[in-house]
Specification:
318 residues, Rossmann fold, Alpha-Beta Plaits, 2 domains, five-stranded parallel β-sheet, five-stranded mixed β-sheet, 11 helices
Length: 318
């Protein structure tokens, strides 16, 4: 039993497969310290990004997406302590570990650093190997948190976003749609006769169909679109900046692609039809709350299924 214990080394091996070269940002105008850190951390397999000013890192934060930050307190412009506020992720479920590496050895600076969100504090002169070990621990915590967060927001079978994420994302998007008077549409998609597929071909083949269908939707939507599994064989596709008319074009493209492909596993094969309910609002129309938007999409899906298999129904927000 003991040899199966999940040790830090095993965690590191697992995380290395997910992100082989974690990104560490170093903010310091002391070139000797930067060079030493760069050599040591690079040898440990990290990708290093260096900055002389905290403002420069903050401006590039979204682009480089660091897994840990090392910063001096005393910098030209914004201090390392002041930067801690801007380095804190807006999403409380995310973390960005910051290690303070500084000449300042007074208790007040340490207290302020930890109060403002620093994860660790090391004074100069420093041992590079020790700092590398501390960074390894911080990066491990960050990546484990990322994995846990992703697993809580994705459907384990299809790897699409799950219902929890869809509802959370839609809340934020509806606020943006209202603020900027943008078009927005949602496709509620349901595989016709999926219970029959499970009964006749078995649940393993049913799972195969769900995974292939998830891939079909992902491949035929934009990167900015949000595709998720809402429940069982019902999926949601959120289309930002898309009118109801444009959403109908997306629905027709999905049908055409599915009809051409079909799904086959061994001797079992199916070309599933699916019903689609489209709900959307154009810029001149009122925007309902997220819950009402989802209800409208499912109402449209119900109307489509009432007509027959392979049908589409479109509803506005009036």
């Amino acid at each position: 039993m003991a040899k199966d214990k999940l040790t830090p080394k095993k965690v590191d091996q697992f995380l290395a497969k997910i992100k082989p070269h974690p990104v560490v940002a170093v903010v310091d105008d002391d070139q000797a310290s930067v060079d030493l850190l760069h050599r040591t951390l690079h040898d440990e397999g990290y990708e290093i990004r260096t900055f002389k000013r905290a403002e420069d890192l903050i401006a590039k934060l979204g682009e480089i997406q660091p897994d840990a930050v090392i910063t001096e307190i005393v910098l030209s412009g914004m201090s390392g302590l002041s930067a801690l506020e801007d380095l804190r992720p807006a999403n409380p479920e995310e973390i960005l570990p910051v290690l303070i590496l500084t000449h300042k050895n007074d208790p007040r600076s340490k207290v302020l650093a930890f109060r403002r969100g620093a994860f660790d504090y090391v004074t100069k002169p420093f041992d590079a190997e020790e700092v590398a070990a501390r960074i390894r621990s911080l990066v491990r915590a960050k990546l484990v948190q990322d994995v846990l967060r992703a697993s809580s927001l994705s459907d384990p079978l299809t790897t699409l976003y799950n219902r929890r994420f869809l509802v959370s994302w839609l809340d934020r998007e509806i606020a943006r749609v209202k603020r900027y008077a943008l078009p927005f549409s949602c496709l509620a998609v349901d595989i016709d006769g999926f219970d029959d597929i499970n009964e006749k071909c078995g649940e393993n083949f049913g799972d195969f169909v769900l995974k292939k269908f998830a891939g079909l939707m992902t491949e035929n939507t934009r990167q900015s679109d949000i595709v998720g599994r809402f429940e069982d064989d019902e999926f949601m596709i959120f289309l930002p900046g898309t009118s109801r008319e444009q959403a109908t074009v997306v629905a027709h493209r999905l049908r055409k692609t599915a009809a051409e492909k079909g799904f086959q596993q061994g001797r079992q094969k199916t070309t599933p039809s699916f019903s689609i309910g489209i709900a959307g609002c154009n810029p001149s129309e009122p925007v309902p709350p997220a819950a009402a938007f989802l209800e409208r999409a499912q109402e449209a899906l119900g109307k489509a299924k009432a007509i027959g298999t392979g049908e589409t129904a479109v509803l506005g927000m009036d």
